[in-house]
Design a protein that fits this description.
Elements: E1 8-10, H1 15-24, E2 28-31, H2 37-42, E3 51-54, E4 63-65, E5 69-73, H3 78-82, H4 85-89, H5 94-99, H6 105-108, H7 113-118, H8 126-132, E6 136-141, E7 144-149, H9 150-153, E8 154-156, E9 159-160, E10 167-174, E11 179-188, E12 195-205, E13 211-219, E14 227-228, H10 230-236, H11 243-252, H12 267-289
Helix pairs in contact: 10-11, 11-12
The structure holds flavin-adenine dinucleotide (FAD).
Amino acid sequence: MALLNLKEFHSPRSLADARALLDANEDALVLSGGTFLHGLEARGLLSDVEALVDIRRIGLDAVEIDGAGLEIGATATFARLQAVPEVGTEAWLGALADALTYPPVQIRNTATFGGCVAAACPFFDIPTALLALDASVDTDGPDGGRSLSLSELFMGLFANTLDTGELITALFVPRPAGRVASAFLKLEGNANDLAIVNAAVRLSVDAGGVCTDARVALGGGVAESTLRIPSAETILLGAKLDEATLRAAGEAVADDISPMSDHRASAAYRSALAKVMTRRALERAVARLS
Ligand SMILES: Cc1cc2nc3c(=O)[nH]c(=O)nc-3n(C[C@H](O)[C@H](O)[C@H](O)COP(=O)(O)OP(=O)(O)OC[C@H]3O[C@@H](n4cnc5c(N)ncnc54)[C@H](O)[C@@H]3O)c2cc1C
């Protein structure tokens, strides 16, 4: 990897020091796990970067789970989350547990949650799961902090809505009330490749098995951003989650996507697969509900 204009590398030990470095140089880039810098550089997106600010030593890697939800420090790695027992056992977090199984072990040991959502790459898996789980990010910027939903964070292909010098400090996944399960599935061309299509869902049901809340999210090039699928959510809400409903929700996703054609798949193939992957992710979540 060659960052053509790179002149400085910084490794601050506190958020305040990182803030000062980012405020002093608007051409500085936040470095976290560093696993996607080559991907951004190969697309010509780092040509203006003059300094790297490595945030892995500023103490943002805590992970906490309680009655309110799951708080993930921005520099917590995927492997760190996989080691949290509840992530593997609690049905409401099923989508996250599923998505974390796909990246190769070297990436899981290095890639961070802040980096994976800040990259705004529609082909990643974990952001699709986090979107279905209603996750939000907390940030620290030149004008203070704010909280953003992932839909507000993702602006387009490799573009987010963070201001210059603004960094993500943590992610929060709220714990939904009641009987809830989530699930994630990915279609990849070969092992360790990025997604052709991925799907994540979260379903809540009442005692009679009627759906009281639904989230459907798709990624993998079905649009320029990972996105929610309201057309499918509307079909699920208030319905019994039987085979016909899950099939109808899968068919409905076509209304909300604009798939791209690239070296991995054509738009038509992605469109067909998005329906199937959505239905299968719903079936997996329904199985977890019982
Ligand atoms: C071989 C390989 C296989 C992979 N397989 C998968 C897979 O199967 N599934 C999957 O989902 N992903 C996969 N990935 C992608 C991987 O998930 C991303 O590379 C990773 O999530 C990026 O996180 P990072 O911490 O390394 O970010 P970095 O590379 O450090 O940064 C990425 C971008 O985010 C910015 N950034 C980082 N942290 C912050 C922050 N806290 N605040 C603001 N901006 C920030 C950086 O400035 C940069 O623009 C794979 C990657 C590789 C290289």
